[in-house]
Amino acid sequence: MSSIFHDEPEESAVDQDMPEAWPQDDGGTAGQGNPPLVDLRDVTRTVLLPDDEQLHILRGIDLQIRVGDHTAIVGRSGCGKSTLLNILGLLDSPTTGTMAFEGRPVAKLGNNARAKMRGASIGFVFQQFNLLPGRSALENVMTPLMYGTAKEFWQRNKIAMDMLDRVGLAARAATQPHMLSGGEQQRVAIARALVRRPRLILADEPTGALDVETGQAVMDLLDTIATESGAALVTITHDLNVAARARTRYRLDTGVLSMDASAEPDLVAVGA
Ligand SMILES: Nc1ncnc2c1ncn2[C@@H]1O[C@H](COP(=O)(O)OP(=O)(O)OP(=O)(O)O)[C@@H](O)[C@H]1O
Fold first, then answer.
1. What is the Å distance from ligand 1's center to 194 Cα?
2. Where does the record place Acidic residues bias (predicted)?
3. Is residue 257 part of a domain?
4. How many angstroms is it from 2 CA to the middle of ligand 1?
């Protein structure tokens, strides 16, 4: 968690290890000429277990995400959702296969360039909110701006206040997380995730700790702000009601990704 919000400031990121953009080989999937925001090709993730067996967590994942998309990935516990999310969020790397972000192959990125790309372009929303205790709502929302551009740094107070206002919590700016309800904490977390206007928002079970009604309100907010800011939203969930809001739905089953999870009625019981 702390690694996401406490990476190197942008000013110290090493730009030299940013590779050239990929050639325009979209494999026929891009259509509009621009590369997808995220492009996974035949991605696998394998770990070596203590008994020397290999655990194949992700297998042959092909996934293209474009700016403006709202994509849901649903699957049962242990199917590889978090592993895929970590790869999409540049927190982990594929074992084999390729991933490009904004047209750049990420395998060649050094740690600083990866952190810079993550900080500037990706916002994370978690099930348990992961707000920093002992800091006000405003300070939480300001945190990513401390590691942003010079303009973001110097205007962090105003930018963060505007974002808190956007999620309807300007009046609670000085309040610490433990004094806020679960839904309010998640709105602060959404404000923090979006305060640098990321192009990709990764939401990992964003309604998992909320009651149904509050969860719907949070998803409405996330949907609306993502659409307004032109970001792509990827929601990872086991709840088909949450998944149904997405325009594109995938099911992840023992590491294999397939289209349209809503066509799988047996998963409804999992989300119930
Ligand atoms: N580093 C690792 N070493 C060993 N096993 C791992 C490792 N990372 C993940 N796994 C295993 O891979 C499988 C997929 O893990 P992952 O956390 O991606 O699942 P998930 O779909 O997010 O599950 P949940 O919904 O319960 O959080 C699990 O069986 C997990 O125990």
1. 27
2. 8-18
3. yes
4. 20
180 lines ligand 1 (CB under 6 A): no
The predicted-structure confidence for 57-77, as pLDDT tens digits, reads as follows: 999 999 999 998 999 999 988
Q: What is the ipTM of this complex?
A: 0.97
Ligand 1 atom nearest residue 252's Cα: 21
Q: H or E element: which one contains 98?
A: strand 96-101
CA 137 – CA 192 distance, rounded (Å): 9
- Condensed to tens digits (0 to 9), the pLDDT of residues 141-194 reads 999 999 889 999 999 999 999 999 989 999 999 999 999 999 999 999 999 999
d(CA 168, CA 218): 11
CA–CA gap between residue 249 and residue 268 (Å, rounded): 14
Q: Does 212 fall in a domain?
A: yes
How many angstroms separate the CA atoms of 17 and 114, rounded? 9
Q: Phi and psi at residue 218, in whole multiples of 5°?
A: -65, -40
CATH number, domain with residue 241: 3.40.50.300
Residue among 43, 49, 53, 57 whose CB has most ligand 1 atoms within 8 A, to mutate: 57
Q: How far is CA 23 from CA 83, 94, 106, 197, 216, in A?
A: 28, 20, 14, 27, 41
| Domain extent for 242 | 2-20+66-90+111-271
Give domain status of residue 53, yes or no: no
Distance 48 CA to ligand 1 centre (A): 13
